[in-house]
UniProtKB/TrEMBL annotation:
Source species, domain of life: Eukaryota
Swiss-Prot/TrEMBL keywords: Repeat, WD repeat
Organism whose genome encodes this protein: Triparma columacea
UniProt cross-references to Gene3D superfamilies, sorted A to Z: YVTN repeat-like/Quinoprotein amine dehydrogenase
Keyword Repeat included in the entry's annotation: yes
A GO term from the CC aspect: cilium
PANTHER family linked: ANAPHASE-PROMOTING COMPLEX SUBUNIT 4 WD40 DOMAIN-CONTAINING PROTEIN, WD-40 REPEAT PROTEIN
First and last residues of every WD repeat: 155-196, 387-428, 472-515, 612-644, 646-678
Protein name: Guanine nucleotide-binding protein subunit beta-like protein
Region (Disordered) residue spans: 1-47
C-alpha cells in the first residue's frame, strides 16, 4: 500500500466531518439496538428478547486466519503493536504483545476477501465475498472508524467478490475493484460514488500514485491493470481529475509503454517505490516488473521467486523492498530502476499472502496460506511465529484429562493440539489423503484418537504427533463419531459410522470386540454411560437413540421421534442420568431408559440446528453449538433455562467442549476459528449437591 501520512490540517478537517456524522449515526444506533451488538466485540447477552446473563460467558480469545485472500492481515501504520486480520466474516483488531487483547468488527455475512488501512490508521475498509443469504450475490464494502470501532459507511455496488481496496494517500477517496469487473471510487467524506466503470475483465491491480494540485481540486495519478486487451494494453497509467464542465470526476487513461514483443503476465501485487518514481509489480511468473511513472514506460523485469510474486512491501526509510513468493521465500531487495541487489532471504511455511511493514520500520508482519502468522525483523529477516490456525472448516474439538490442553481437527485432515496458556500449537499434523477429520477424542492426556472420512481411525502421541496405530476400514464409509473409555478395569474405543454401525474396539490390541448395525442412517453421536461403562448410547440421522449392553451383547433400549434428526448426544450426571440429544429442529430432548417418550424438552429460541451438545463436568449446565453461529448454555437445575449466549463465530458452529474444571469452553466452526470462552457458572462449587 502506497501510504503517505495526510497533512495535519487536512486530516483534522476530514475527521471533524466524520465525527459529526458518527455522532448523528450513534443516536440512530441507540434506538436501533442490533447494530451496536453486531459491530462490537463478541459478547454474551440478550437474545431474542430473553433475559440472559452477560456475566457468565466471556470470549477470552479467538484463534483464526485462513490466508484464503491476499493482504487480509495488515499492520496499523502508526501504532506499533496493533494489527488487523480477517477471521471469517469478522475483522479482528489484535495486539502483538497481548494475545488476550482482541476487538472484533462485525457487519459482513460472508468471508472477508479484501482489506485496506488508511495512511493515518484512522480508517479501515473491508470487503467480502458475494453473499448467498440474499439474491444478487452482493458484496458490500464496510468502512470502519478505528477509534470508535463503528462502521462509518456501508458501500454497495460490487457483486461476486471484492478483490482490492485502496485508500488514496490523502484519505479523500477509497477505490474498490471486484470480480464483477467493476471499479468504484468513493468519497470518504460523504460515502458517495464519485467514479464507476465496468471493464472487460476484473481490475487485478490498483495503486494510487502522486497527488497534483490542480486548481480547487487535486488530481490523482493511478496505476491499474485489467487483463483482456492484450499484453500491450494490460497496465494503464491514469489520472483521476474533476471535470468542471461535466461537474463530475473523470478517469483518463493511457497505456504504459511495454516492450515491442509484449509481456504476458498476470499481476498479483503492486507497490510504489519510496521516491514515488517507480511502480513495482509482482507477477505470476515470479518476477518484479519496474515501471517509470514519469515516462509511463516499462523498465525492467527482476526475477525474484517461483510460483508467483504475491506480496510486496516497502520500507520508506531505507528504500528496501520485501517480496513474498508463492514458494514461501521472503526476499529483501534494494535498488532502483534497472539495478537491484539481493540483501537477504528467508523461507516461511506456505505461500506468503500478506506483507505489511509495522510502525517504526524495524519489523514487518507476514502471513501464509497455511494460516501461519509471523513477526519478521527487517534487518536480518529473522521470523517469529505469532500465531497459527486452521484454514478449513473445523469439525471437532476435545479436551483430555488436562484442563489447559485441547485438540481440534478440520476438513482438510489437519489436527492441532493447543496450549490454552498462550494459544500456541503444541502439535500439528496432517493426514493429506484422509478426506478430513470428522471426530476426535483423547486417551487420558497422552494420546489423541481421531476418525476420518476415509473410514480410518488413527491414534497419535499428543506430545510428538507420532502416529501410534490405526484401524483401517473401521466402517463402510466415514467415521462420524467417537468416544473413549479407559480405566484400570476396562479400556475400549467406540466408533459410529456413516453406515449406521456402532463398533467397539479394544484399546490394547485394536481388535473389534463387538459391532451393532441397528441404525438406518449415519450415526451422529456415541457416548459411554457415565455410571455403567458396559452401556453405550448412540444417536443417528434416522431419529433414533439406542442403548447397547456390552455384557449382554445386544441393544436393550430404543427411543425414536418422528421428525428432527439427532445431531449429537451427551449425558446428565444428576437426576436419572438421562441422555440429552440435540436435533435439527433446535430441540434438546431428555431421555430416560424407563420411558419411551422424552421426559422433558428445551426448545432453542431461534430453532437453529443443534450441531453439538455437551453436558458440563458438574452436570449442571448443557452447552450447544448451532447453525445460528451462537454458543448457548442452559441451566439444568433451573428447568433448562437459557442462561447465556455467546457470539464469537461468524459462521455455523460445528462443535464445542468443556474443560474439565468447567472454567472454560472451546467452540469451533465453519469459519475456521477456535473460540475460547471463560465460563463463570457455579456448577462445581455452589453447594447444591450436584456432582
Amino acid at each position: 500500500m502506497s501510504a503517505r501520512p495526510v497533512g495535519a490540517s487536512a486530516r483534522s478537517e476530514i475527521f471533524s466531518s466524520r465525527t459529526a456524522r458518527s455522532t448523528a449515526r450513534g443516536e440512530e444506533e441507540k434506538s436501533a439496538g442490533p447494530l451496536s451488538q453486531r459491530n462490537g466485540a463478541a459478547q454474551a447477552g440478550t437474545f431474542e428478547g430473553i433475559g440472559t446473563s452477560d456475566d457468565m460467558l466471556e470470549l477470552e480469545h479467538v484463534i483464526g486466519f485462513t490466508g484464503h485472500f491476499w493482504e487480509t492481515m495488515q499492520a496499523h501504520p502508526t501504532e506499533g503493536n496493533v494489527y488487523f486480520k480477517a477471521m471469517g466474516s469478522v475483522v479482528a483488531i489484535c495486539d502483538i504483545l497481548d494475545p488476550h487483547n482482541q476487538k472484533f468488527l462485525r457487519a459482513h455475512d460472508m468471508e472477508i476477501s479484501a482489506m485496506s488501512v488508511s495512511p493515518s490508521g484512522g480508517l479501515l475498509a473491508s470487503g467480502q465475498v458475494g453473499t448467498v443469504h440474499q439474491p444478487g450475490y452482493h458484496a458490500p464494502v464496510i468502512v470502519w472508524d478505528y477509534y470508535t470501532k463503528k462502521d462509518l459507511f456501508v458501500l454497495t455496488g460490487h457483486t461476486k467478490e471484492v478483490l482490492l481496496l485502496e485508500f488514496s494517500p490523502d484519505e479523500r477517496f477509497l477505490a474498490g475493484t471486484g470480480k464483477d469487473s467493476l471499479l468504484y471510487i468513493w468519497d470518504m467524506q460523504t460515502g458517495e460514488v464519485v467514479f464507476g466503470k465496468k471493464f472487460d475483465e476484473p481490475v487485478v491491480l490498483f495503486e494510487w500514485a502522486a497527488i497534483r494540485e490542480n486548481g480547487r481540486r487535486a488530481s490523482y495519478e493511478i496505476i491499474l491493470c485489467s487483463p483482456g486487451g492484450g499484453p500491450q494494453d494490460d497496465v494503464k497509467h491514469c489520472e483521476l481529475a474533476y471535470d468542471p464542465v461535466r461537474a463530475q470526476w473523470m478517469l483518463h487513461s493511457n497505456n504504459v509503454n511495454m516492450p515491442s514483443g509484449g509481456l504476458s503476465r498476470t499481476y498479483y501485487s503492486a507497490m510504489l517505490s519510496p521516491d514515488n518514481e517507480f511502480m513495482l509489480c509482482g507477477t505470476s511468473v515470479g518476477d518484479m516488473l519496474v515501471f517509470n511513472l514519469a515516462n509511463s514506460v516499462y523498465r525492467a523485469s527482476v526475477p525474484v521467486c517461483s510460483s508467483g510474486l504475491v506480496s510486496i512491501a516497502v520500507n520508506d526509510e531505507t528504500g528496501e523492498v520485501f517480496c513474498g513468493g508463492g514458494d514461501g521465500t521472503l526476499k529483501k531487495l534494494q535498488g532502483r530502476d534497472m539495478r537491484w541487489e539481493l540483501h537477504g532471504e528467508t523461507t516461511l511455511d506456505g505461500r506468503i499472502v500478506s506483507l505489511s511493514v509495522m510502525a517504526g520500520n524495524t519489523e514487518m508482519l507476514a502471513a501464509t496460506d497455511k494460516g501461519t502468522q509471523y513477526r519478521v525483523l527487517l534487518d536480518d529477516l529473522s521470523a517469529t511465529i505469532i500465531g497459527t490456525s486452521h484454514t478449513e472448516h473445523i469439525t471437532c474439538t476435545a479436551f483430555g484429562s488436562r484442563f489447559d490442553v485441547f485438540a481440534t481437527g478440520d476438513a482438510k485432515g489437519l489436527i492441532k493440539v493447543w496450549d490454552l496458556s498462550d494459544y500456541a500449537t503444541i502439535v500439528s499434523l496432517t493426514e493429506k489423503k484422509s478426506g478430513g477429520v470428522t471426530c476426535i477424542a483423547w486417551i487420558n492426556s497422552t494420546a489423541i484418537v481421531a476418525g476420518f472420512v476415509d473410514a480410518f481411525v488413527r491414534c497419535y502421541d499428543a506430545t510428538s504427533g507420532k502416529k501410534l496405530w490405526e484401524i483401517p476400514n473401521a466402517h463402510k464409509g466415514s467415521i462420524t463419531s467417537i468416544a473413549v473409555h479407559a480405566d484400570s478395569r476396562l479400556a475400549f474405543l467406540t466408533t459410529g459410522g456413516e453406515d449406521g454401525g456402532v463398533g467397539v474396539w479394544a484399546l490394547k490390541n485394536r481388535e473389534l470386540m463387538i459391532q451393532f448395525v441397528e441404525h438406518q442412517k449415519s450415526v451422529t453421536g456415541v457416548c459411554v454411560d457415565v455410571k455403567k461403562p458396559n452401556l453405550i448410547h448412540s444417536c443417528s440421522m434416522d431419529c433414533t437413540l439406542l442403548t447397547y449392553d456390552l455384557i449382554k451383547e445386544k441393544r436393550i433400549v430404543s427411543h425414536m421421534v418422528r421428525e428432527g434428526a439427532f445431531l449429537g448426544c451427551s449425558q446428565r450426571l444428576d437426576s436419572e442420568q438421562e441422555i440429552v440429544t440435540g436435533d435439527g429442529n433446535g430441540r434438546l430432548l431428555f431421555w430416560d431408559c424407563d420411558y419411551q417418550k422424552p421426559t422433558s424438552m428445551v426448545q432453542d429460541p431461534a430453532r437453529a440446528k443443534c450441531n453439538s451438545v455437551k453436558v458440563s463436568p458438574s452436570g449442571r449446565y448443557v452447552a450447544t453449538a448451532g447453525d445460528d453461529h451462537l454458543v448457548k448454555i442452559y441451566d439444568l437445575v433451573d428447568n433448562g433455562q437459557l442462561v447465556t449466549v455467546g457470539h464469537g463465530h461468524s459462521e455455523n458452529c460445528l462443535g464445542l467442549e468443556w474443560s474439565g474444571d468447567e472454567k472454560q469452553l472451546v467452540s469451533v466452526g465453519e469459519d475456521a476459528c477456535v473460540c475460547v470462552w471463560n465460563f463463570y457458572g457455579t456448577g462445581l462449587d455452589d453447594g447444591t449437591g450436584v456432582p
